[in-house]
Design a protein that fits this description.
The complex is a heterodimer. Chain A is α+β, with helices and mostly antiparallel strands. Chain A is built from 19 helices and 17 strands. In chain A, the strands form four sheets. A five-stranded antiparallel sheet of chain A has the order 2-1-5-4-3, with helices on both faces. In chain A, helix 13 (about 495-530) runs antiparallel to helix 14 (about 535-565), helix 14 (about 535-565) crosses helix 18 and helix 15 runs parallel beside helix 16 (about 615-630). Chain A is rod-shaped, with a radius of gyration of 74 Å. By secondary structure, chain B is an alpha/beta fold. Chain B has a single domain, classed as 3-Layer(aba) Sandwich (Rossmann fold), CATH 3.40.50.2300. Chain B has five helices and five strands, in the order E-H-E-H-E-H-E-H-E-H. Chain B has helices spanning about 10-20, 35-45, 60-70, 85-95, 110-120, and strands spanning about 1-5, 25-30, 50, 80, 100-105. Chain B has a five-stranded parallel sheet with strand order 2-1-3-4-5, with helices on both faces. The longest helix of chain B is centred in the last third of the chain and has 13 residues, at about 110-120. The two termini of chain B are about 15 Å apart. Classes of the chains: A alpha+beta, B alpha/beta. Chains A and B meet through helix 13 of A and helix 1 of B.
């Protein structure tokens, strides 16, 4: 039961039990005392009854005697006494009546007694009357007559009085004994109560000690142990407040132990050195990381001054910093160079907290050597990048997602004529007159579509109002401030001008060459056909030679012009759905004379396959490949043209059985003026431009061209072109 | 057929004239420049005009524009004979009102037939 009581209950026990005992003791004692009193009262009552009964007897007796005396003497004294008696007797009966109370038996006796007394008094009164009336002896005879009756009455009264006082006499007899008994009982009870009280007190004392004092003592001890960091006593049993408090102490001890363990783990395993330094600068405690950082184990440092680790150049700074920190005047962190055991330098960031209570500094030393190196490298890299940006020939503008200028490089200022300050904060659209500038958002969308991830050619506006062409490329990137766009701008005015001049030059040269060649060729052809009269054989031969070479020269000029157009991406193309069969037919027709001249047979596939192409340009390609094949075939040999269809592609192959092409030339022959043998130009003719032009044409068709060949085994020149027009996406990518 | 050749190059006018003469039934009028050409077109009323593009003073574009302005010469078909042979050039010349474009240098033996082919088309 003790285990489930709380302090309140126990307190209640300590108070209530003695109290109840005392109350019980008092109650019983009171009862006993009341009994004793009752006994005494009963005895007293009995005595009174007996006394009053005796008194009554005496009174009656005295009354008789007085009457007798009066009867004898007629003395007023006796009469007076008689009268007094008569008065006293009712009073005595009243007293008796009060004494007997409600006792029925005594009341009956008393009534009888009263009756007898009344008879007696009547008799006496008669006797007195007789006495008063009669002479001297009559009175005496009256008395003598009354005596016998009086004796009877007196006897009756005596019996009745005996009866009346019988109980009282009994009580009187028993009284002392009973009282004594009660007294003994009281004494006994008092003794028992004292003993019980003592026992109870002892038990309560034990109870108090066992359940409260001893437990409090354990609690006190545990609190002391907790403060000292010692192991606590086993937890107290029970559910009272003391047990609960003890449980709390145990929880606190566990938590402190856990925290201490974690703290130790952190300190033991921290990469940084965690240490404490006293006010004299001596290490008090050092974590194991010191071995790594300074090459010194903790026990090698404890007791030493931390300044021994600081590089001489930083000593003054450190001392001042430490002083300032102790005085609370400064930030709690500073950097210094420290020296390892092996002499190497380590840059350390010290985080310091001064404890006024413990008069020591609590420090964390963090190795920032690598960080410093990285910072230095970063600074150098940034400086490099800044130099590059400052000096690059391409304009650089960085804008936010809305198109507002945040950064420009000097080249941009130079290009546009605006200073950096005039550009910063403005929206990019003010530089682009040809784009929709009604809303910045729309403008940026348009610009992104044109220039993000590709190069767009645009016209932009200088400060002086001139426009000039640029190539613009936008790159999106994320910065700490959010999404940003970097615009790379190349002023292509000069290049455009050069291209324009080149085009003009080419156009002019083309015109200037073609014009006289028109006259030359025309003259020679007219002569060779006899329009100006018949020519002799020799003249015809010479004219034919001149005409042929003029045509060759015209072809060369055309090729050179085509090459230039290809380079500029300006070769004329008129795309349509073209049947490859018709292309082959036209091509073969074009080279038929040449083939016949060289005794080479040309065979072609008559497969019909549609391609999306410029038919004339494909003829140009096939003619070129056929011409080459014929040129490099042996007399009597053959050239085959094959067509293959696969998915969305059509491949044309021109196969010869000529000398083949060494592997190293396979890619080179598509370059300008490249021929497998230097002498080919002389023996076989050709300028070395044909395959370059073919490659350019096929590439403009989004196709591919190549050759499969082995030396001595002949060659297969092939190209493949799409059979369908490109999709809009492909068109966009290509453009 | 009466053909007017407008070209600032004397040699080309001679060659063209001779080329066109290879086939009979053709008479050739020559003009050395745009202004001369317009004047001769008005006076001679040729059946077709062979017009050079690049000429000093009044080039082919201005010449054809002048020809189209005159009611007497507006209907005369004009064929450009030129070193400018880009598709864009051809388109431009057709937009100016030419019915065809022939490239220089031309094959004298084919000039006549080429002119007829353009006129027929």
């Amino acid at each position: 039961m003790r285990l489930t009581l709380n302090l309140k209950h126990k307190g209640l026990i300590l108070v209530a039990v003695p109290l109840l005992f005392e109350l019980a003791f008092i109650a019983i004692l009171t009862a006993l005392l009341n009994e004793s009193e009752r006994q005494v009262y009963r005895e007293m009552h009995s005595k009174n009854v007996i006394y009053e009964a005796g008194n009554l007897t005496r009174l009656f007796h005295d009354c008789g005697i007085a009457m007798a005396g009066y009867g004898l003497t007629k003395s007023p004294m006796f009469e007076e006494k008689y009268q007094d008696m008569i008065q006293d007797i009712p009073r005595a009966f009243d007293k008796m009546k009060r004494l007997v109370g409600d006792n029925p038996e005594q009341q009956a006796s008393l009534r009888h007694l009263e009756d007898c007394t009344s008879r007696g008094l009547t008799l006496l009164a008669q006797a007195k009357g007789s006495i008063d009336e009669g002479s001297g002896t009559s009175g005496l005879s009256a008395v003598r007559n009354m005596y016998g009756e009086m004796k009877t009455i007196t006897s009756e009264m005596g019996d009745e009085l005996k009866k009346l006082t019988a109980e009282s006499r009994e009580i009187e007899k028993e009284g002392p004994g009973a009282q004594n008994q009660v007294r003994q009982l009281i004494k006994f009870f008092i003794v028992v109560a004292v003993v019980f009280n003592v026992l109870l007190s002892l038990w309560l004392a034990y109870f108090f000690t066992a359940t409260i004092v001893r437990r409090l003592s354990v609690l006190t001890d545990n609190s002391w142990r907790l403060a000292k960091g010692q192991v606590l006593s086993p937890p107290l049993s029970g559910v009272d407040e003391i047990a609960h408090l003890d449980g709390v102490f145990h929880d606190m001890a566990d938590a402190l132990a856990e925290a201490s363990r974690k703290e130790r783990a952190v300190i033991e395993n921290a990469v940084d050195v965690i240490c404490s330094i006293d006010e004299n600068g001596k290490f008090l405690k050092v974590s194991p990381a010191s071995t790594n950082l300074w090459g010194l184990a903790p026990d090698e440092l404890i007791g030493r001054n931390y300044l021994e680790l600081i590089a001489p150049a930083d000593l003054t700074k450190v001392e001042e910093a430490a002083r300032a920190i102790r005085n609370g005047q400064s930030d709690t962190a500073f950097e210094t160079t420290t020296t390892r055991q092996d002499g190497a330098s380590v840059t350390v960031l010290w985080s310091v907290h001064w404890s006024e209570i413990e008069k020591s500094m609590f420090c964390v030393a963090h190795d920032i050597s690598e960080r410093k190196k990285a910072e230095e490298a970063l600074r150098a890299s940034e400086a490099r990048v800044r130099t590059i940006i400052e000096n690059m020939l391409v304009g650089l503008i960085i804008v936010d997602s809305a198109g507002n200028v945040e950064t420009v490089n000097p080249r941009t200022e130079e290009m546009f004529g605006w200073s950096k300050d005039q550009l910063l904060g403005r929206n990019l659209m003010f530089l682009f007159p040809e784009l929709d500038r009604s809303e910045p958002e729309k403008f940026m969308q348009t610009l992104m579509q044109k220039a993000k991830g590709r190069i767009a050619e645009l016209e932009v506006l200088r400060k002086n109002g001139e426009t000039f062409p640029i190539e613009l490329s936008l790159t999106e990137f994320q910065s700490s401030e959010g999404r940003r766009l970097m615009a790379n701008i190349l002023d292509v005015s000069e290049r455009r001008e050069i291209e324009r001049l080149k085009r003009e030059f080419v156009s002019t040269v083309s015109h200037e060459l073609r014009t006289p060649l028109t006259s030359i060729r025309g003259s020679l052809t007219l002569m060779s056909v006899g329009a100006l009269g018949a020519l002799n054989e020799q003249m015809k031969k010479v004219v034919t030679i001149a005409e042929r070479n003029t045509i060759r020269l015209i072809g060369l000029i055309n090729d050179i012009l085509d090459i230039e157009k290809l380079q500029a991406g300006k070769l004329d193309m008129a795309f349509d759905n073209v049947d490859i069969r018709s292309v082959l037919e036209r091509s073969i027709e074009s080279v038929r004379a040449f083939a016949d001249q060289n005794s080479v047979k040309v065979e072609a596939s008559d497969l019909s396959a549609f391609v999306y192409a410029d038919g004339d340009r494909l003829v140009q390609v096939v003619v070129n490949l056929l011409s080459n094949a014929i040129k490099f075939s042996e007399k009597g040999g053959s050239v085959t043209v094959a067509v293959e269809k696969e998915n969305d592609w059509v491949t044309v192959k021109v196969i010869d059985r000529g000398r083949g092409i060494p592997a190293k030339y396979k890619d080179l022959i598509f370059e300008r003026f490249q021929q497998v043998e230097v002498s080919d130009a002389k023996r076989k003719g050709g300028t070395g431009l044909g395959l370059t032009i073919c490659k350019g044409i096929i590439e403009q068709h989004r196709g591919f061209i190549g050759v499969d060949s082995e030396e001595g085994q002949g060659s297969t020149f092939w190209f493949k072109v799409p059979s369908q027009a490109p999709s809009a996406a492909q068109e966009t990518i290509h453009s | 057929m009466k053909i007017l050749i407008i070209d600032d190059e004397d040699d080309i006018r001679v060659i063209a004239s001779m080329s066109l003469g290879l086939i009979g039934g053709v008479s050739v009028i020559e003009a050395a420049g745009g202004a001369d050409g317009v004047s001769k077109a008005l006076s001679e009323k040729p059946d077709v005009i062979l017009l050079d593009m690049i000429m000093p003073d009044m080039d082919g574009a201005d010449t054809i524009a002048a020809l189209k302005e005159h009611p007497e010469t507006r209907h005369i078909p004009v064929i450009f004979v030129t070193t400018r042979s880009l598709n864009s050039d051809v388109e431009r010349m057709k937009q100016l009102g030419a019915v065809g474009v022939l490239s220089k240098p031309f094959d004298p033996t084919l000039l006549s037939s080429q002119v007829r082919a353009i006129l027929d088309s």
